[in-house]
Amino acid sequence: MRTDPNALLTLSQWLSPAYPVGAFSYSHGLEWAVAQGDVHDRASFSRWLRDILEYGAGRSDAILLADAYRADDAAETDALARALAPSRERLAETVNQGAAFARATAPIWETPFEDLCYPVAVGVAAKFCGLPLRDTLALFLYAFAGNLSSAAMRLVPLGQSDGQAVLAECAPLCLSLAEAAMEASPDDIGSCVLAADIGAMKHETQATRLFQS
């Protein structure tokens, strides 16, 4: 089935780096990983990013987004999203982006919410506006990967060509994760990216920081 071009344009706007959610100021613990030397080139960043997507917040947030999209009331999904945050900064990352998304979206699309975590907010807004869930999931995941790729280009530093190549390589994974999230439930959520979670905790006391997480 061909997706409505208007829906794709709306999703592209919501999930663009230009949309004012402040995503550029969060590294999801990557800044600490770079400082420790764990991420230092294209190959190490590619492994780090793919693990985050497949075994960490990428997959978990996609499932939360889909659950919020299907729910009559997303309050329980939002409470779960907050409980899953492994550190203070990661909680702030999802809560602050969700609030910023609501502020930007409500005046234009009249979305009826304010205080929701980011993936939950996107899921509720997509449902309210009648946007297709599968496309919402795929573009949400790709935007998440794109933001972290942009952070890596600044932090490693990773060249523009290498950063874009890593992102392009993640496209099939984002599509696969989006497809899986369509059939998943919150019971399927799990994470095993311990180094990234520890990095998010360690970042709170990192001496020199460019990012909020």
TrEMBL record:
GO cellular component terms listed in the entry, alphabetical order: cytoplasm
UniProt keyword annotation of Flavoprotein present: no
Cross-referenced InterPro entries: UreF, UreF_sf
Pfam family, one: UreF
Membrane-spanning residues: none
Any coiled-coil regions, as ranges: none
Keywords from the named record: Chaperone, Cytoplasm, Nickel insertion
Location in the cell: Cytoplasm
Xref: HAMAP family: UreF (MF_01385)
Subunit structure: UreD, UreF and UreG form a complex that acts as a GTP-hydrolysis-dependent molecular chaperone, activating the urease apoprotein by helping to assemble the nickel containing metallocenter of UreC. The UreE protein probably delivers the nickel.
Role summary: Required for maturation of urease via the functional incorporation of the urease nickel metallocenter.
Family recorded in the similarity comment: Belongs to the UreF family.
Record protein name field: Urease accessory protein UreF
Organism this protein belongs to: Sedimentitalea arenosa
